[in-house]
Protein backbone atom coordinates (compact mmCIF):
# COMPACT_ATOMS: atom_id res chain seq x y z
CA UNK A 1 0.00 0.00 0.00
CA UNK A 2 1.32 3.46 -0.86
CA UNK A 3 0.05 6.69 0.67
CA UNK A 4 0.99 10.23 -0.29
CA UNK A 5 0.63 12.84 2.40
CA UNK A 6 -0.27 16.50 2.06
CA UNK A 7 3.29 17.47 3.05
CA UNK A 8 4.80 15.75 0.01
CA UNK A 9 5.83 12.64 1.91
CA UNK A 10 4.98 9.17 0.68
CA UNK A 11 4.82 5.97 2.70
CA UNK A 12 4.46 2.30 1.87
CA UNK A 13 3.79 -0.68 4.13
CA UNK A 14 3.51 -4.45 3.81
CA UNK A 15 2.37 -7.14 6.25
CA UNK A 16 4.48 -9.76 8.04
CA UNK A 17 2.56 -13.05 7.95
CA UNK A 18 2.58 -16.31 9.88
CA UNK A 19 2.49 -19.69 8.12
CA UNK A 20 -1.31 -19.59 8.31
CA UNK A 21 -1.41 -16.19 6.60
CA UNK A 22 -2.28 -14.20 9.73
CA UNK A 23 -0.76 -10.72 9.83
CA UNK A 24 1.36 -10.34 12.96
CA UNK A 25 3.09 -7.10 12.10
CA UNK A 26 4.15 -4.82 9.29
CA UNK A 27 7.18 -3.04 7.92
CA UNK A 28 6.96 0.47 6.51
CA UNK A 29 9.12 2.99 4.67
CA UNK A 30 8.50 6.71 4.25
CA UNK A 31 10.32 9.49 2.46
CA UNK A 32 9.95 12.61 0.37
CA UNK A 33 7.77 12.15 -2.71
CA UNK A 34 10.41 13.47 -5.08
CA UNK A 35 13.16 11.15 -3.82
CA UNK A 36 11.50 7.88 -2.82
CA UNK A 37 11.23 5.50 -5.74
CA UNK A 38 7.96 3.85 -4.70
CA UNK A 39 8.06 0.84 -7.05
CA UNK A 40 11.66 0.02 -6.13
CA UNK A 41 11.09 0.58 -2.41
CA UNK A 42 7.92 -1.55 -2.52
CA UNK A 43 9.85 -4.39 -4.14
CA UNK A 44 12.53 -4.27 -1.43
CA UNK A 45 9.91 -3.94 1.30
CA UNK A 46 7.97 -6.94 0.00
CA UNK A 47 11.18 -9.01 -0.06
CA UNK A 48 12.01 -7.96 3.50
CA UNK A 49 8.52 -8.87 4.74
CA UNK A 50 8.75 -12.24 3.00
CA UNK A 51 12.12 -12.89 4.66
CA UNK A 52 10.76 -12.03 8.11
CA UNK A 53 7.69 -14.19 7.46
CA UNK A 54 9.91 -17.15 6.47
CA UNK A 55 12.02 -16.66 9.61
CA UNK A 56 8.88 -16.73 11.76
CA UNK A 57 7.76 -19.94 10.04
CA UNK A 58 11.17 -21.59 10.65
CA UNK A 59 11.24 -20.45 14.29
CA UNK A 60 7.69 -20.58 15.67
CA UNK A 61 8.90 -19.42 19.11
CA UNK A 62 9.53 -15.98 17.58
CA UNK A 63 5.96 -15.70 16.35
CA UNK A 64 3.46 -14.06 18.70
CA UNK A 65 0.54 -16.24 19.66
CA UNK A 66 -2.36 -14.88 17.67
CA UNK A 67 -5.88 -15.69 18.77
CA UNK A 68 -8.92 -15.14 16.58
CA UNK A 69 -11.18 -14.88 19.63
CA UNK A 70 -11.93 -11.42 20.98
CA UNK A 71 -11.03 -10.80 24.66
Overview of this protein structure:
There is one protein chain. By secondary structure, the chain is an alpha+beta fold. It is 30% helix and 31% strand. The protein has one helix and three strands. It has one helix spanning 38-58, and strands at 2-4, 9-17, 23-32. Strands 1-2-3 form a three-stranded antiparallel sheet, covered by helices on one side. The longest helix is centred in the C-terminal third of the chain and has 21 residues, at 38-58. It is elongated, with a radius of gyration of 15 Å. The two termini are 29 Å apart. The mean pLDDT is 80.
Mean pLDDT across all amino acids: 80
Helix/strand order:
EEEH
Output the radius of gyration: 15 Å
End-to-end gap: 29 Å
What oligomerization state is this entry in? single chain
Number of strands: 3
Which of globular, elongated, flat, extended, rod-shaped describes the shape?
elongated
Per DSSP, the total helix count is: 1
Task: Work out the strand percent.
Answer: 25-35%
Query: Low-confidence segments, ≥5 residues, pLDDT <50?
Result: none
Strand order in the largest sheet: 1-2-3
Amino acid sequence: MAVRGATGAVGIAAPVLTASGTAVGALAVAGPHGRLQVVRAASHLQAACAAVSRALQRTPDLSPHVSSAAP
